[in-house]
Design goal:
By secondary structure, the protein is α/β, with parallel strands linked by helices. The chain has eleven helices and 16 strands. The chain is 31% helix and 21% strand.
Length: 392
């Protein structure tokens, strides 16, 4: 596949706003997780919460979109000069020639939950009768208006792979000549449906999550926003390949041999024209659930050299659900840009079944190619390969 230039990117999570805060946390092995303080009756767990969303106010022209998810999107869009980069692209190509493709698993459902607590005679109160907010497409509609874009707009909701798959969709739209550039990304925020839903599946840990630890006991949920601008051509940072697969093994449990995950990995490497040994850093899905880490760890162990540096970064941010793919893509791009390969924060004793590629501590060195895995519920899997291109 012809590479696509990644001309701007950013992420906001529990460790802070923008790339600098994220890179600092990764370098210092500093987790953003904290004891759960979300909601009226907080579950006894740890979360990756973004500070300041309660006080944040959208600009007057965007106030009709107000909800926690769109506030986080707005906060994330303002970091790292991202809005300015999109404005420049809009001037180059025109607003109809830039696609917007965003991933989310819950969108604005937190606001809808609130509206249901305010029912009067079976109806939402007047200030909650906002159909554009109470829809899974709310995020994309909001960001499209905020960025002044008029091209194709998609919302992808495939659980944890949502904002990884946005890169694949963008590549197809650009390759087919339907657009000249694409804004991709994802946003998900904490809400009752997420916290209590995952708790009902017995997947939530009462402690900070420990990916690939021998005594791991579940996930820590988080919230995040991330975005990237993709354009035709070559650049210092490039999307080289992607792979997608749905094994449909189970609603919430991965295929025991990682069938779909390996298919996605194979396709990503094939599109990039690379062998597994060419990958210098792997950002693993690594949720800290028993089965996910076992299956993914075995896959990486059998496919990559022992010297490959792999880690899960969910101990830093929590599992940000539909935003996990874009946040971890940003971490992979930072690894290429800075040479920083993160470790596994919170993890103390690696599970011997998971392979020697997984590293506890961060390391530095040239990263020419990075792989990012995102494996969602229902066996919906996506792998992305990013690479270092020529300096501009």
């Amino acid at each position: 596949m012809p590479p696509l230039k990644i001309s701007a990117f950013t992420a906001t999570s529990a460790v802070g706003v923008g790339k600098t805060a994220l890179a600092d946390a990764l370098a210092q092995s500093r987790s953003g997780l904290r004891a759960n303080d979300f909601g009226a009756s907080p579950l006894p767990t740890w979360i990756g919460r973004v500070d300041g969303l309660e006080e944040l106010r959208l600009p007057e022209e965007l106030a009709a979109w107000d909800c926690r998810n769109n506030r986080l999107a707005w906060l994330g869009l303002q970091a790292d000069g991202f809005m300015e980069a999109v404005a420049a692209a809009r001037k180059r190509y025109g607003p109809t020639r830039i696609a917007l493709i965003l991933g989310t698993s819950t969108s604005s459902i937190g606001e809808t939950e609130l509206a249901y607590t305010q029912l009067a005679d079976g109806a939402f109160p007047a200030d909650q009768q906002r159909p554009k907010v109470h829809t899974p497409h709310s995020l994309s509609l909001f960001v499209q208006q905020a960025l002044g874009l008029e091209g194709p707009s998609e919302t992808i909701s495939t659980a944890c792979s949502s904002s990884a798959k946005v890169f694949a969709s963008a590549e197809r739209l650009i390759r087919l000549g339907l657009v000249d550039a694409a804004v991709v990304g994802g946003v998900d925020t904490l809400c009752g449906s997420v916290l209590f839903g995952f708790n009902s599946l017995e997947l939530v840990s009462p402690e900070p999550c420990r990916p690939f630890d021998a005594t791991r006991n579940g996930i820590s949920l988080g919230e995040a926003a991330g975005f990237a601008l993709l354009e035709r051509g070559r650049g210092p940072l490039e999307l080289l390949g992607y792979g997608e697969a749905s094994d449909a093994h189970h609603m919430s449990t991965p295929h025991p041999e990682g069938l779909g995950a390996e298919k996605a990995l194979d396709d990503a490497l094939a599109r990039a024209g690379l062998a597994a040994a060419a990958i210098d850093y792997i950002n693993m899905h690594g949720t800290a659930s028993t089965k996910n880490d076992e299956v993914e760890g075995a896959l990486v162990a059998r496919r990559f050299p022992d010297t490959t540096h792999a880690s899960s970064t969910k101990g830093f941010t929590g599992h940000t659900l539909g935003a996990a793919g874009i946040v971890e893509a940003v971490i992979s791009l930072l690894a290429i840009e800075t040479g920083l390969k993160p470790g596994n924060v919170n993890t103390t004793t690696l599970d011997a079944e998971c392979g020697p590629q997984i590293k506890l501590r961060p390391a530095r060195g040239e990263v020419r190619h990075a792989l990012s895995n995102s494996f969602g519920f229902g066996g919906n899997n996506c792998s992305l390969v990013f690479g270092k291109g020529a300096a501009e």
